[in-house]
């Protein structure tokens, strides 16, 4: 039934009606431009202060054409033509394009690009927060190549920290904040068999739980919300709370239990009801793993049997918790499934996840004090995604384009 509901939702987006556009005078265009300039000047007037808090939003795979199409779709979902719309973060005063590559790849992956963002050092594809002195899959080569991350620096300086993602928390983008590994796919100890030399290297899930053992003066991440329960649970039946199936860990450890035991007033949650019940004033450390693997696409989220919070809701909860620290905080929020949908050639889900990502940015923007909080919105790489032909104004962005003969 869930798949049927998702299919119905997708088909309704494909059949958006063609909206009529209103005529604008030259003066209207000039007025829009003037208002944009005044808005940006007002924001820049507040610049010059040192940021106490940093929120880094990463739309995984969210290239320029994805932003374009999502902008149009969001407007069309409101009954507009769409082209005139702006995703929330497109109103930010400072905009730029990024050049992306890995030291060994023309087209980069999320491990190498996120490593560059959080350490300032480019590296090979597949490596997580280690330099390209390391070889992919070779544990011995990793020794001494570990790079200090922004999150680790924040922890050592007494700031609160957190990661939020719609992917597995052990996936490349969120993991680059807290882990150091020569193979991005080494998410649980069960993945060691696929490595050329796993050696004594520790899997990503363990690195999250054991973070305080490796970073001096750290009290650990205060917030970690996303998917990926499998890498934290032992490989035996009855382990997973949602379906009673096994986890992936062959060492027999239940890392969710260890998270709770390591921190006073810590909490572990796995569904929407538990998420809603969390009091951000009482929980010291919050681990939320809302799916065995990746979380649902936004288009499918409401059909999830156990219920999952949206990216916007996770963003709000994380900010509420981290804001309690008087020293400030660092928070990384990833819209991960934009990328996954593009890989699967699924534009509907790529675009609806992009729209929800923009809503999460708005949520953060409206919650924080901008005089002391830096919000960065970026992507780690793009995708081959084209708005093709010469569609007329208001053409359904998920529809087809008629040619000169009137035929599709």
Can you summarize this structure?
With 408 residues, the protein is of the alpha/beta class. It is built from 14 helices and seven strands.
Structural class, by secondary structure, is alpha/beta
What is the CATH architecture assignment? 3-Layer(aba) Sandwich
- What low-confidence regions span 5 or more consecutive residues with pLDDT below 50? none
- The 3D shape can be described as globular
Q: Tally the helices: what do you get?
A: 14
Total E-strand runs? 7
Please state the average pLDDT score: 92
Q: In what order do the strands lie side by side in the largest sheet?
A: 4-5-3-2-6-1-7
- What is the assigned CATH homologous superfamily? Alkaline Phosphatase, subunit A
List the secondary-structure elements in sequence, H or E: HHEHHHHEHHHEHEHEHEHHE
In whole angstroms, the N-to-C terminal distance is 33 Å
């Amino acid at each position: 039934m869930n798949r049927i509901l998702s299919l119905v939702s997708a088909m309704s987006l494909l059949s958006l009606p063609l909206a009529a556009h209103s005529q604008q005078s030259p003066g209207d265009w000039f007025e829009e431009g003037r208002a944009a300039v005044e808005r940006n000047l007002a924001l820049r007037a507040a610049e010059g202060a040192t940021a106490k808090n940093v929120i880094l939003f990463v739309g995984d795979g969210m290239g320029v054409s994805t932003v374009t199409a999502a902008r149009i779709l969001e407007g069309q979902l409101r009954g507009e033509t769409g082209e005139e719309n702006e995703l929330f973060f497109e109103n930010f005063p400072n905009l730029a394009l990024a050049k992306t590559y890995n030291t060994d790849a023309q087209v980069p992956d999320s491990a190498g690009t996120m490593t560059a963002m959080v350490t300032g050092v480019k590296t090979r594809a597949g490596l997580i927060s280690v330099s390209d002195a390391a070889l992919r899959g070779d544990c011995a080569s990793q020794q001494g190549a570990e790079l200090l991350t922004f999150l680790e620096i924040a922890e050592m300086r007494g700031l609160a920290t957190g990661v939020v993602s719609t992917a597995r928390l052990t996936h490349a983008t969120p993991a680059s904040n807290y882990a150091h590994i020569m193979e991005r796919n080494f998410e649980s100890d069960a993945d060691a068999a696929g490595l050329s030399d796993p050696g004594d290297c520790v899997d990503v899930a363990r690195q999250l739980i054991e973070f305080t053992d490796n970073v001096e003066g750290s009290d650990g991440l205060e917030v970690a919300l996303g998917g990926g329960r499998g890498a934290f649970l032992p490989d035996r039946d009855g382990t997973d709370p949602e379906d009673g199936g096994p986890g992936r860990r062959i060492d027999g450890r239940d890392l969710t239990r260890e998270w709770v035991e390591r921190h006073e007033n810590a909490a572990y949650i796995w569904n929407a009801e538990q998420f809603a019940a969390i009091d951000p004033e009482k929980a010291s450390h919050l681990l939320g793993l809302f799916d065995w693997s990746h979380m649902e696409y936004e288009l499918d989220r409401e059909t999830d049997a156990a219920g999952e919070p949206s990216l916007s809701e996770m963003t709000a909860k994380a900010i509420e918790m981290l804001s309690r620290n008087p020293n400030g905080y660092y928070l990384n929020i990833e819209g991960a499934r934009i990328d996954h949908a593009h890989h699967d050639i699924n534009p509907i889900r790529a675009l609806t996840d992009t729209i929800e990502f923009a809503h999460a940015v708005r949520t953060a923007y409206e919650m924080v004090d901008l005089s002391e909080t830096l919000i960065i919105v970026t992507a780690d790489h793009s995708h081959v995604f084209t708005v093709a032909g010469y569609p007329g104004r208001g053409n359904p962005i998920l529809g087809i384009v008629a040619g000169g003969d009137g035929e599709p």
